[in-house]
Amino acid sequence: MVEMTVESVRINLATQQRVVILKATKQERYLFIWIAYAEAYAIAVELQGTTSPRPLTHDLLKNVIEELNAKIVSIVISDLIDEIYYARIILDVDGRHVEIDSRPSDAIALAVRAKTPIYVEESVLERAGVVPEQNEEPQPPNVRSETKQEDEEEEEENLDAYRDFINSLDVLDEFGKD
């Protein structure tokens, strides 16, 4: 498993889709996970150190876990099946190891509140992780074609399109921003 941190939460202004960008702690590797508005908001609010007058859903979940004398040990983004990410929340309940199935966005929102590590299985990073070239924005993995020349041409087109896309995203600096 590879430990990751939340690098940022961004929004595509044209489509209003949100993405959380995870970055490996010890290497230049990224994972992009598209998430819903509510989870993007929940993650962004916590990253900005902002509090709500009443607990948000992820605050409530954290409070319930703590009141039951359990500890959130970590979260793991464990699988990628048919372009859907899967995650587990790892708990210590009175010395007993408990794993709870979760959407990655909810697990990440909980992890940033509980200040617990975020891990991604190596197999997920091999399929969906991004390793940017020097001095470039993170790029998505490319599907390889059959010849090297086709690969190079396709890679350059994909990089240009992806570079344009990343540059069109806006960091969610203001949690109420649409």
Molecular structure report:
Strands 1, 2, 3, 4, 5, 6, 7 and 8 form an 8-stranded mixed β-sheet that branches. The longest helix is centred in the last third of the chain and has 21 residues, at 148-168. Helix 2 (57-67) packs across helix 3 (104-114). This protein has helices at residues 37-47, 57-67, 104-114, 122-128, 148-168; strands at 2-12, 18-24, 30-35, 70-81, 84-93, 96-102, 118-120, 169-171. The protein has a single domain (2-171), classed as Bifunctional nuclease domain (Roll). A hairpin with a 2-residue loop joins strand 4 and strand 5. 34% of the residues lie in helices and 33% in strands.
Brief write-up:
By secondary structure, the protein is of the alpha+beta class. 34% of the residues lie in helices and 33% in strands. Strands 1, 2, 3, 4, 5, 6, 7 and 8 form an 8-stranded mixed beta sheet that branches.
Key phrases:
single chain; 178 residues; alpha+beta; Bifunctional nuclease domain; 5 helices; 33% strand; globular; nuclease activity; Bi_nuclease_dom
**Fourth CATH level, the homologous superfamily:** Bifunctional nuclease domain
- How many structurally independent domains? 1
What is the CATH topology?
Answer: Bifunctional nuclease domain
Shape: globular
What value does the Rg take, in angstroms?
Answer: 18 Å
Question: What is the class in the CATH system?
Answer: Alpha Beta
CA-to-CA gap between the ends? 34 Å
Q: Largest sheet, if any?
A: 8 strands, mixed
Category from helices, strands and their pairing: alpha+beta
- What's the pLDDT, averaged over the residues? 83
Strand-residue proportion: 25-35%
Unreliable stretches covering 5 or more consecutive residues: 139-151
Under the CATH scheme, the architecture is: Roll
Continuous helix count:
5
